[in-house]
Specification:
Length: 257
């Protein structure tokens, strides 16, 4: 299970997508997802732009497909749920399977696929440091309300970076328990619960240890959310950033009207 879950990590290909401002990438992600929910035309346009971004970013299609395949049960559950619980015309007499449900299930699955694909593009083309700086810059207006935006941005980025680490650690622990003759998914409910504890407890302890190591490393380097930090490469919008903004706005307008 843990081995099949694919968490995308940053891959520096130095493409034009990698060089985009991270704030523009965040806004483009939100805008494209909103456009995909507006109309079928918007859904098609967003798919076209997504594949264009994959090509321009020189991203391996295998990584995108792996991210989609790792969540295949979510797509299957979404389709089955809508097929059986959406009222409409029955496909087969005596079965509660409707045309409208099948249509909605496929539509929701396509939108979910777009969300996963575009999120993967963001993670694969943006370094953790740029992600943190971009989030902090976007949340900066909330400083007037007294919110610690720098700490919040750092927490979100660290959480995203810990996901692949936890999956890797989970798979390592799972293989270690199998080598000892413990199969997590076998036996009755009580045995499965006991076997799961053998995996969960070391995972929690290991996660706490890694978090302490990260906190110690940040403290040694003098990191503090109370200090005003400067940037080696300050954010500046270029022509390609404005082109992306204009493209996303055009797609949103076409999708709504």
């Amino acid at each position: 299970m843990f081995k099949s879950i694919a968490a995308p990590t940053y891959n520096n290909n130095n493409s034009c997508i990698h060089k985009l401002d991270p704030r523009i990438k965040f806004l483009a992600l939100l805008g494209l997802i909103c456009a995909s929910f507006c109309s079928i035309l918007g859904l098609g346009l967003v798919f076209a732009i997504t594949f264009l971004a994959i090509a321009l970013g020189r991203i391996s299609y295998a990584k995108i497909l792996k991210a989609l395949y790792s969540l295949k049960w979510l797509f299957i559950f979404g389709i089955i749920f809508h097929v059986f619980f959406t009222p409409g015309r029955y496909i087969f007499t005596g079965w509660r399977i409707t045309y409208e449900g099948l249509y909605m299930g496929i539509l929701i699955s396509l939108r979910l696929a777009l969300l996963i694909m575009n999120s993967s593009i963001l993670m694969l083309t943006t370094s953790p440091i740029r992600l943190t700086q971009g989030l902090e810059s976007m949340l900066s207006p909330l400083k007037r309300l007294g919110l610690p935006t720098a700490a919040l941005a750092m927490m979100i980025t660290l959480a995203m970076q810990f996901v692949p680490v936890l999956f890797s650690e989970s798979h390592r622990l799972l293989m270690a328990q199998k080598a000892r003759g413990i199969i997590i998914g076998e036996g009755n409910i009580i045995q499965k619960a006991r076997n799961a504890l053998v995996l969960i407890l070391p995972l929690i302890i290991g996660a706490e240890r890694k978090a302490e190591n990260v906190a110690l490393a940040m403290h040694i380097r003098g990191y503090s959310v109370k200090r005003t930090r400067s940037r080696l490469h300050p954010f500046k919008l270029y022509h390609k950033d404005y082109i992306v903004v204009a493209m996303v706005m055009l797609v949103m307008i076409i999708s709504c009207f």
